[in-house]
UniProtKB/TrEMBL annotation:
Record Pfam families: DsbB
Coiled coil ranges: none
Principal place of residence: membrane
Family as reported in the entry's similarity comment: Belongs to the DsbB family. BdbC subfamily.
Disulfide bonds: C37-C40, C98-C104
Name of the molecule in the record: Probable disulfide formation protein
PANTHER family in UniProt: DISULFIDE FORMATION PROTEIN-RELATED, SPBETA PROPHAGE-DERIVED DISULFIDE BOND FORMATION PROTEIN B
Keywords: Cell membrane, Chaperone, Disulfide bond, Electron transport, Membrane, Oxidoreductase, Redox-active center, Transmembrane, Transmembrane helix, Transport
Role noted for this protein: Required for disulfide bond formation in some proteins.
TM segment ranges: 9-29, 41-59, 68-86, 111-135
SUPFAM superfamilies reported in the protein's UniProt record: DsbB-like
């Protein structure tokens, strides 16, 4: 009987978080009809591959993937934080990279006065980063 490395559940938690974020963004755009702005597309570009890559890594219990995925989630968190700042700090809107289409400071949702779509993405990217850092401790 061969001994297997213990399952790294933090990889599964990171994958589940990425899947919820991916499906949530698809729900907002395809079901609710919210047109994504330019900053939303950048966040999607960073989140969607995480759902696939983390799923494969969790299935194979491959914690080596963290060194490739963690930078994507950190860059995604910074992008989400900037986008959230555009929504909540009107003085930043003039510096917005959005030039056509839906403005990046538009808030389709505003639950409890602070939860917007970029805030949800920020939480997801931060959770993924935390789960990956915790998974590192399990090595």
């Amino acid at each position: 009987m061969t001994s297997r490395e213990p399952t790294n559940y933090f990889l599964y938690f990171a994958w589940i978080t990425a899947m919820i974020a991916t499906l949530g963004s698809l729900y907002f755009s395809e079901v609710k009809g919210f047109v994504p702005c330019e900053m939303c597309w950048y966040q999607r570009i960073l989140m969607y591959p995480l759902a696939l890559i983390l799923g494969i890594a969790a299935y194979h219990n491959d914690s080596r993937i963290k060194k490739y995925v963690l930078p994507l989630s950190i860059i995604g968190a910074v992008t989400s934080l900037y986008h959230y700042s555009l929504q909540k700090l009107p003085s930043l809107v003039t510096a917005s990279p959005c030039s056509e289409g839906v403005p990046c400071n538009m808030q389709y949702i505003n639950w409890f006065g602070f939860v917007t779509i970029p805030f949800l993405a920020l939480v997801a990217f931060c959770l993924i980063s935390v789960f990956l850092i915790l998974a590192r401790k399990g090595e």
